Each structure stands twice: as structure tokens, then as C-alpha cells.
Amino acid sequence: MKFINKLRRNEEGATAIEYGLIAALIAVAAITAMQSLGGELTTTFNTVSSAMSTANNANV
């Protein structure tokens, strides 16, 4: 009976679950931010690449 009461008072498992949920929420937020920035970065790099290619062809 003491063992069962001790298990009821033990909150370490609940704390671990809470940390897991927080980590999952942070991961979802990071993935969302990276996806939105990914498209913008692709556009930026393509623009720079085109400008450099045009400048290189003009100097040749």
C-alpha cells in the first residue's frame, strides 16, 4: 500500500511529459519558421545567382 501511495505522489513522469510537449511545440514552431524562410531564401539566392551570371557574361 505504501508503494502505491508513493507512486501517486511521484510527479517526475508528469514533468518529463511536460518537457516533451514543450520540446514538440518548439520543434513545430521551428519547422514552420524554416519552411516560410526557405522559400524566401530560394528566391533571394536565385536573384543573386542571376545577377552574378549577368554581370559575368557582360564582362566576358
Give a brief outline of the structure.
The chain is mainly alpha-helical and 60 residues long. It has helices at residues 2-9, 12-59.
Largest sheet, described in full?
none
What is the total tally of β strands?
Answer: 0
Q: By helix and strand content, what is the structural category?
A: mainly alpha
| Count of alpha and pi helical runs | 2
- The SSE order reads HH
Helix content: over 70%
Structure, explained:
The chain is mainly alpha-helical and 60 residues long. Helix content is 93%, strand content 0%. The chain has 2 helices and no strands. It has helices at 2-9, 12-59.
Secondary structure elements and their pairing?
Elements: H1 2-9, H2 12-59
Quick tags:
mainly alpha, 60 residues, 93% helix, rod-shaped
